[in-house]
């Protein structure tokens, strides 16, 4: 594929223009750090002396955070939280990230999704995760809460340029919410991009979706080992969803974009030798890809920009974000 660098740069500079709505499974990552002190007398377990706690936006919340750092906070989230202490933490973390969380729906019967990671270190070693505790409710929303979420969606979609459906399969995106969101997005001529791990055929008539390679293989029912396999998989997803394009992320092998009429683009990975942590990189790709599509970029250029952004965040530990200036600087070095 020939890349017009000036065109690419022009799209990157427009990433701060679109307003984005993220709908899905909102979560917070609680990172607890401590220094290893001794073995407990009560049980053969390590005692950590607490050093600090860090709160990070995770799951669909991470996609919103990535958008916020690129478009100066022109992003809102719709999802469900509990009536608990963690909900307060979630709201405060959204506010610090300049993400509008005024459309959150409270469901007292659910837990605010929180993933607590406890990590320890000693002076002669790096910090290592010891245990992770997941706090969440996996059941689908009740009909009453579902209706509240739908009202927020109906109110918000006309005010945004693009919608991200971020499904971590924790229960927020019910079939009705998925169908109604896509219907309204198409009615108002909005970009709608799906980030989901399974049941991809459910998302009919979207602008695009961003499955990774393992999830794509599960969806299409065959192993993907060659470029011809990628083409066949992309075409199968296009036929199943009637999407305008499919972006398959292939880890160290880059990305693959499929559009109608046999239009394919293979995109190599950038900065392959500097990967430290891929956590949240998929959210970054979805966020940047969506912003680029909403800014007028055609799918291949949007995917390239998403790929460059991912190459920046994987050089940092944990769910990370990037900025327009960092992306432009990375383009200069290509």
How would you characterize this protein structure?
With 334 residues, the chain is of the alpha/beta class. The protein is 37% helix and 26% strand. The chain has 10 helices and 14 strands. It has an 8-stranded mixed sheet with strand order 4-1-9-10-11-12-13-14, sandwiched between helices. The chain has a 4-stranded mixed sheet with strand order 3-2-7-8. Strand 12 (245-249) and strand 13 form a beta hairpin. The radius of gyration is 20 Å and the shape is globular. The mean pLDDT is 90.
Question: Quick recap of the structure?
Answer:
By secondary structure, this protein is an alpha/beta fold.
Q: Number of DSSP helices? A: 10
- Give the ordered list of helices and strands: HEEEHEEHEEEHEHEEHHEEEHHH
Q: What does the main sheet amount to?
A: 8 strands, mixed
Oligomer: single chain
Mean pLDDT: 90
- Low-confidence parts, pLDDT < 50 over ≥5 residues? none
* Biggest β-sheet: strands ordered side by side in the sheet: 4-1-9-10-11-12-13-14
The count of β-strands is 14
* Portion in beta strands: 25-35%
Distance between the termini: 15 Å
Q: Classify the secondary structure makeup into a structural class.
A: alpha/beta
Q: What's the alpha carbon Rg, rounded to whole Å?
A: 20 Å
Helical content (DSSP H or I, runs of 4+)? 25-40%
Overall geometry: globular
Topology of helices and strands:
Elements: H1 5-13, E1 20-24, E2 26-39, E3 46-59, H2 60-71, E4 75-78, E5 80-81, H3 85-96, E6 105-106, E7 114-121, E8 128-135, H4 143-156, E9 162-167, H5 175-187, E10 191-196, E11 208-209, H6 213-220, H7 227-241, E12 245-249, E13 255-259, E14 263-267, H8 281-294, H9 299-313, H10 324-333
Parallel strand pairs: 1-4, 1-9, 2-7, 5-6, 9-10, 10-11, 11-12
Antiparallel strand pairs: 2-3, 7-8, 12-13, 13-14
Helix pairs in contact: 1-10, 2-8, 4-5, 8-9, 9-10
């Amino acid at each position: 594929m020939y890349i017009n660098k000036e065109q690419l740069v022009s799209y990157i500079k427009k990433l701060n223009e679109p307003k984005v709505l993220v709908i899905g499974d909102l979560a917070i990552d609680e990172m607890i750090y401590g220094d290893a002190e001794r073995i407990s007398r009560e049980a053969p377990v390590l005692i950590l002396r607490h050093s600090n706690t860090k709160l990070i936006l995770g799951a669909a919340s991470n996609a919103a955070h990535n958008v916020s750092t690129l478009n100066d906070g022109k992003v809102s989230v719709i999802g469900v939280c509990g009536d608990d202490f963690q909900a307060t933490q979630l709201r405060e973390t959204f506010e610090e990230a300049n993400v509008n969380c005024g459309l959150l729906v409270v469901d007292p019967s659910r837990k605010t999704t929180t993933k607590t990671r406890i990590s320890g270190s000693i002076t002669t070693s790096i910090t290592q995760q010891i245990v992770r505790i997941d706090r969440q409710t996996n059941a689908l929303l009740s009909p009453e809460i579902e209706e509240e979420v739908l009202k927020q969606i109906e109110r918000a979609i006309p005010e945004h340029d693009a919608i991200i459906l971020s499904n971590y399969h924790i229960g927020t995106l019910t079939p009705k919410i998925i169908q109604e969101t896509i219907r309204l997005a198409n009615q108002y001529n909005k970009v709608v991009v799906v980030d989901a791990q399974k049941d991809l055929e459910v998302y009919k008539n979207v602008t695009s979706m961003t499955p990774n390679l393992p999830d794509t293989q599960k969806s299409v029912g065959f192993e993907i080992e060659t470029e011809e396999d990628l083409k066949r998989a992309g075409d199968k997803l296009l036929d199943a969803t009637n999407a305008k394009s499919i972006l398959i992320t292939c880890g160290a092998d880059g990305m693959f974009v499929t559009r109608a009429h046999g239009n394919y683009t293979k995109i190599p990975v950038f900065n392959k030798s500097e990967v430290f942590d891929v956590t949240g990189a998929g959210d970054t790709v979805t966020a940047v890809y969506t912003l680029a599509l909403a800014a007028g970029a055609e799918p291949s250029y949007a995917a390239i920009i998403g790929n460059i952004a991912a190459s920046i965040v994987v050089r940092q530990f944990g769910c990370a974000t990037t900025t327009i200036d960092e992306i432009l600087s990375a383009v200069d070095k290509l």
